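Record pair follows.
FIRST:
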Amino acid sequence: MRIAYHLGVHCTDEDRLVRTLHRNADMLAEQGIEVPAPERYRNLIRDTAIQLKGRVAPTETQAIVLDQIMDAEVADRMVLSWENFLAFPAWAVKGQLYRTGGDRMRAICNIFPEIEAEFFIGLRNPATYLPDLLRKQRGRPWAEFIEGTDPLDLRWSDLILNLLERNPGVPLTVWADEDTPLIWPEVLQAVADHPDGLPLSGRDDLLSGLMTADGLRRMEVYLESHPPQTPSQRRRVVSAFLDKFAEPTRLETEIDVPGWTAETIATLTETYERDLAYIATLPGVQMITP
């Protein structure tokens, strides 16, 4: 068995991935893919990792934890998803992004040391990610939240390198959150590793939050009558319908950070795009792109 860990990050997925896959749990189970409900494992894994303090779990502990998570006696793959795997929101920015993420995932993987792991993570432009993360801080002022960290120094590649270094041999799949509406079926398939053509229910739910109801209905009718032959064909269709039927207010992101200017946002965005290009070159990393 392999375990696919979806790591978030905060302010990207909001549990859409695990909700979609869990909605199709019975269909996926027929393919040997276990998608347990999040409430069965999130606190359990956190508490077990704390008790082990990074040590490898004894065989008895592994069996007990798996028995509490899984329904099936055996499975080829299990999907576990939690945006707090790497850190809770208050600890996500401490000099760098998710500084202890690599060690946390090593401790979690040590709960199941005999099971191969894979990591999956969506990244987001710090220009929009940081303001949204601040909103999760329950009224903390910006200065207290950022604690002297220079946003211009933040690089997602530091987190990716840390994950690779602390978890050698674990494959890592990355995508940009900004691309998710166009690549959502590919993301779902990468995480679940389900067969091509499996008709997942709800795979277009993400678009329903970005497109008018009429536009979504028209797109679904078009896709049904003109089935795309490749993922790139589907992306072109989705892009065209988004251009025509997008809800402008749902695509806008409010950026209100003390001291930030248009130049700050442009610099953060340019740095992020260069960082993504660098991440795509790293050994052990697969990048999902439109």
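SECOND:
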Amino acid sequence: MIDRPLLQVENLCTYFKLPKPHLFGKAATVFAVDDISFEISRGQTFGLVGESGCGKSTTAMSVLRLVEPTSGSVKLDNQDIGQLKADELRSFRRHMQIVFQDPYSSMNPRATACEIVEAPLKIQRVGTSKSRRAKVAHLFKMVGLRPEQRDLFPHQFSGGQRQRIAIARALASGPQFIVCDEPVSALDVAIQAQILNLLRRLQEELNLTYLFISHDMAIIQHMCDHIAVMYMGQIVETADRRSLFLNVQHPYTKALLSAIPTIDFNVKPSSKRLEGDVPSPMDPPEGCRFHTRCPMTEDVCKKEMPLLRAVKENHFVACHRA
């Protein structure tokens, strides 16, 4: 059931100041996330897609306040996360969790699988030791792990099994909202499908809301209800899944779609594929940030930054040519 948005992000900016190159030098600023807004309805999956370095993961970290945003607001279930004090934020984290990209580096190698999944319950001081162990056993069953695997260490699991442990840990505190930060990019293709199907099943059973991050358009299409395409810290196109893939508007989105592999030998290589490097986020181009790589650039693109505007219902694009 879809009701009012569970997550509301408004004008989010996250900038990083770099150290001065020398005593009299000027400190550079990295514009990692630059004024983005979006909403996620309860029980839905919102996808962020784009090349590496476009600001997807920084957006996720800023939403969870694992990185402090420079400005803007983030509200989860109408609670402004940015206004919470340290002790309040610690308690509130039970409502929002994250599944990281690399399941091995995000775990304590000296802790058993049981201890890793139980950790959020201990931190939140939930239940007794016995009830927590029972909860861990239930979570292991939910994610497809065997009871006897609870006392094994992370290095004794395969990559897919480690990601199942990470998902169980994220579910332990009973969150409403989970960030999936490229959760399958480090896995084999066959295992990717298993983890994606697991995430979808858990979403249906627990009415979870996902912010799903990926650079793979095929995975985004499979998983997400609504999608935002990011380039150099900004959202350049956002729409529901059907509208985005059937009526793509932004040349950057077209280039991303052209990169999806195909086994059809009759399909010629697309002329829409990108050339050149992404400009530095410390010195973004004037006007449209994509104009240095866009095959449709006009003079106005070099002077004026395009704003997101509606091209149809629930479909917005930041492009002068759209």
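COMMENT: The chain has ten helices and twelve strands.
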